[in-house]
Specification:
The structure is a single chain. By secondary structure, the protein is α/β, with parallel strands linked by helices. It has 3 domains: about 15-60, lambda repressor-like DNA-binding domains (434 Repressor (Amino-terminal Domain)), CATH 1.10.260; about 65-170 and about 305-330, Response regulator (Rossmann fold), CATH 3.40.50.2300; about 175-305 and about 335-355, Response regulator (Rossmann fold), CATH 3.40.50. Helix content is about 45%, strand content about 15%. It has helices spanning about 20-25, 30-35, 45-60, 65-70, 85-100, 115-130, 145-150, 175-185, 205-220, 235-245, 260-270, 305-320, 350-355; strands at about 75-80, 105-110, 135, 155-160, 170, 190-195, 225-230, 255, 280-285, 300-305, 330, 335. The chain has a 6-stranded parallel β-sheet with strand order 2-1-3-4-5-11, with helices on both faces. Strands 7-6-8-9-10-12 form a 6-stranded mixed β-sheet, sandwiched between helices. β1 (about 75-80), α5 (about 85-100) and β2 (about 105-110) form a beta-alpha-beta unit. The longest helix is centred in the first third of the chain and has 16 residues, at about 85-100. One of its GO terms (molecular function) is DNA-binding transcription factor activity. Keywords: DNA-binding, Transcription, Transcription regulation. It comes from Ancylobacter aquaticus.
């Protein structure tokens, strides 16, 4: 009898990995693999470790849909967002849920905390539960995530970005940030600083920084200073960053914030230091959340149609599941909303008075 040759992981990349493949790679029975995946205690630690290692190497994800329904459909759609407490994401998720519920689907939601490792774990868990489709944020993920989705044939869509390689609903973050700089430079600002989230964890933040720098570079300018915060959704970080920028030399005449929460914090800190916005310094946000128009002064910001992003993402997933035609890329319109937090830069005398109000750091 001819001896069978075990298949290598390389030969499995273009098809779904099954229990048989895991059992062969771990050199155990399929019954042992099933026991481990079902959480049974009737397996030795050594065999359990071999099976878990084989699953990781092959990229095997238990198919919850196949276990639940012979139709391989659970009528559940998963979504992983960076931060549930972020108002923009919350509004988009609500619109997403409303759209898929109209088609008879349930939403399963998870948060990654801007950590690619966590995002991968949450996506794997959602796939294990057998979700029919998946909504992600951004186009930069853990290196294992996209190969896993493509290998399993998972219907997915990326949001808040435009990706040439994946279905997406969003906008050009770099171009959008450039709009703000175009406006501020048009007012006469040349000393411009930014308060942004950490680009290493957030491809949208990285694109916005790139857009700011490119727009300034086209005019022979550069950033006056830049403050990077760890948590781009926290108002407190906006306050701390604004205090640092106002204490810097040279002091900026305009501050571009990566989102409205940071801008809100910047406005609060400026007021606490008796720095007038916009007479002493201009501040801009990004998103145009509900409260932006009601701040004192009202916030100049980029309006991102977050509700539309959520609804269109849901529409893409539902139509793909129903085998209806739909374009793989949908771009939403971003617009600059000019309000009272921006004005032409102050003169040198006013800038000197502003600087003298800032207390020295301890």
């Amino acid at each position: 009898m001819a001896k069978s040759v075990p298949r290598s992981p390389r030969s499995l990349r273009d098809r779904t990995v099954g229990l048989e493949d895991v059992a062969r790679a771990a050199d155990v029975s399929m019954a042992s693999v099933s026991r481990v995946l079902n959480g049974s205690a009737k397996v030795s630690d050594a065999i359990r470790a071999r099976i878990e290692r084989a699953c990781a190497e092959l990229g095997y994800v238990p198919n919850g849909a196949a276990r639940a329904l012979s139709s391989r459909r659970t009528r559940a759609i998963g979504a992983v967002v960076p931060a549930i407490e972020n108002s923009g994401f919350a509004i988009a998720v609500a619109a997403l849920q409303k759209r898929i519920e109209q088609a008879g689907y349930t939403l399963l939601l998870a948060s990654s905390g801007y950590d690619p490792e966590v995002e991968l774990r949450e996506v794997t868990a959602l796939l294990t539960h057998g979700v029919d489709g998946l909504v992600l944020v951004g186009d930069q993920h853990h290196p294992s995530l996209m190969p896993m989705l493509k290998r399993m044939g998972t219907i997915f869509v990326e949001t808040w970005t435009l990706s040439p390689n994946s279905p997406c609903v969003g906008f050009d973050n770099e171009k959008a940030a450039g709009q703000v700089i175009d406006y501020l430079v048009g007012l006469g600002h040349t000393a411009i600083s930014t308060i942004m989230g950490r680009p290493q964890m957030n491809d949208r933040a990285a694109a916005r920084v790139a857009g700011v720098e490119a727009s300034l570079r086209r005019r022979g300018l550069s950033l006056c200073s830049q403050f990077v915060v760890e948590h781009p959704f926290r108002i407190l970080d906006g306050r701390l960053a604004m205090r640092a920028l106002l204490s810097s030399d040279p002091c900026p005449t305009a501050v571009v914030c990566g989102n409205d929460q940071l801008a809100f914090g910047a406005l609060i800190e400026a007021a606490s230091l008796n720095v007038s916005v916009p007479n002493d310094i201009s501040i801009t946000g990004f998103n145009d959340l509900d409260y932006a128009a009601h701040l004192v002064p009202p916030l100049t910001t980029l309006r991102i149609p977050v509700e539309q992003i959520g609804a269109m993402a849901g529409d893409y997933i539902v139509r793909r599941l129903q085998n209806e035609p739909i374009l793989p890329m949908a771009e939403v319109e971003v617009s600059l909303i000019v309000r009272g937090s921006t004005a032409p830069p102050p003169g040198k005398a006013a800038a000197s008075r502003r600087k003298s109000r800032i207390p020295l750091a301890d």
